[in-house]
Amino acid sequence: MNKDAALHSIVKESIIDMIKSGEYQPNTKLPTEAEFCNTFGVSRTTIRTALQQLTVEGYVYRVQGKGTFVAENKIKQSLTSTVEQFSEQITLQGKAPSIKVLQLKVIEATDFLAKQFNQNIGDPVNCLERMRYVNDAPLQYEISYLPWHKAPGLDSAACEKSLYKMLETKYNIKIRKTIEHLELVLADDTISKKLEIPAGSPCFLLETFAYAEDETAIEYSKTIFRGDRAHFVIERNY
């Protein structure tokens, strides 16, 4: 094992523990590199590496000429709950959620979408782009596709609330289940602008397939979360 790698990992995890325990509060200044060197008995290089990783992972942020500060708590979202409980989950954390429709249009089904929705290539498909914010700061960007013949005339304003509730009340379509795939990706130029993060920043990609009660596919979506602000909780009952 690389000794330096092991040391900076130990230091990083120790600082994370102190942040989570409340010893270091959000937006308060952390000790200097020199002070951390004395605390942990390691080199400045080890401390600097640990702080760089903490910055990338969203636990701390740096202010030029002032030092390193503790970041706001990450936004917790339960993967065990439905995505439509987004607003409730955020509100319970004392934060203000909001949704903005960036674009709503009808496109022609690609080969991939046609297979998902059991349609023909070129059939009309709703394409919905939305941003979700917490305290007016971007948390996630999502693009959803829905077969037009199932949900003709989607309303942009209604899509700034619960999409699934709107499908149920307006089209009598109740989502029965979703199948989701979560993976780590790096932000490209487009995503970096939308989420206001540097290109190459780590993000979570959630790919979702939603099905109605009759097992027909109703929605396919891709959601990209800021890696420095998102925190997922998975609960299992045995």
UniProtKB/TrEMBL annotation:
SMART domains: HTH_GNTR (SM00345), UTRA (SM00866)
UniProt-listed InterPro entries: Bact_HTH_transcr_reg, Chorismate_lyase_/UTRA_dom_sf, Tscrpt_reg_HTH_GntR, UTRA, WH-like_DNA-bd_sf, WH_DNA-bd_sf
Keywords associated with the record: DNA-binding, Transcription, Transcription regulation
Transmembrane segments: none
GO biological process: negative regulation of DNA-templated transcription
GO MF entry, a single one: DNA binding
Domain HTH gntR-type: start-end pairs: 5-73
Gene3D superfamilies: Chorismate lyase-like (3.40.1410.10), Winged helix-like DNA-binding domain superfamily/Winged helix DNA-binding domain (1.10.10.10)
Domain of life: Bacteria
Name of the protein this chain belongs to: GntR family transcriptional regulator
